[in-house]
Amino acid sequence: MPPIEQLQAELASAKSAVEQIVQSQSLKGFDEADQLVLLLERKLAAARNEEHAVPIDFPIQWDVGAPCPHVFMNEQRAFLAFYVREDDPNWDGTYVRVVDPADGSIARLALVEFKLCSSVKLGSPNDEVQSGHPLEGKGLEGYRAQEVKNSQWIATVQKINSVHPQYRPASWSDQHHYIFWFHDSAFECIATGFSVERFETTWPELMQTICKRLFT
User: Fold this and answer.
1) In the chain, N or C: fewer CB atoms in 10 Å?
2) What is the pLDDT of residues 153-186, one digit of tens each?
3) DSSP class of residue 60?
4) DSSP 124-188
5) Integer Cα distance of 119 and 114 in angstroms
6) How many whole angstroms separate alpha carbon 117 and alpha carbon 178?
7) Residue 104 exposed, middle or buried by CB count within 10 Å (0-12, 13-18, 19+)
8) CB–CB of 112/79 below 8 Å?
9) What gap in Å lies between CA 1 and CA 216, rounded to an integer?
10) What angle do CA 26, 42, 38 make, to 5 degrees?
11) pLDDT per residue as tens digits for the range 1-31
12) pTM for this one?
């Protein structure tokens, strides 16, 4: 059996296993089965030379319910800030923690700086319509930091820039398409890399830190 047909068969079998687990209502082994589906989706997309999303080594998990992502950028640098996930050992499911970046309280925040960032998106879609995203079925995971391989966005931007007299295809080899899926929005950017920091501070103080970096 050709490799692509074999991957298709393995993916169909893995999806069937996930459906059986869901129908059993026990959910035992669901995470492992679901991860296998994602892995096979990526392998199949790569074999077809299609764009697909792969996990990246990211040290911080953002708050699932209300990460409140904020973006700050100029023409060369971009910063993404959000609430870090905080597990409450006393939470019993009967209440919701409400956060407000404008209230001036100290919070656990993350700041991601994207290096030589050329393009940024933040907004729709949210997690309720993830199934309609072009990367759905190609390794896309919610609430996960990922990189898009064989990115059509990078290809489009590169094609636009190819008319420049000094265009060099090799200069695009270090470009990465990142996608971070939040609760109410998705963040995407094209950059050469990123760094991550943790802060325990207020949003206004973090914004001051960001502005100083943007202007230096």
Assistant:
1) C
2) 999 999 999 999 999 988 899 999 999 999 999 9
3) -
4) S--GGGGGGSTTTTTT--TT-EEEEET-HHHHHHHHHHTTSTT--GGGGTT-EEEEEE-SS-EEE
5) 10
6) 11
7) exposed
8) yes
9) 58
10) 10
11) 568 999 999 999 999 999 999 888 777 889 9
12) 0.90
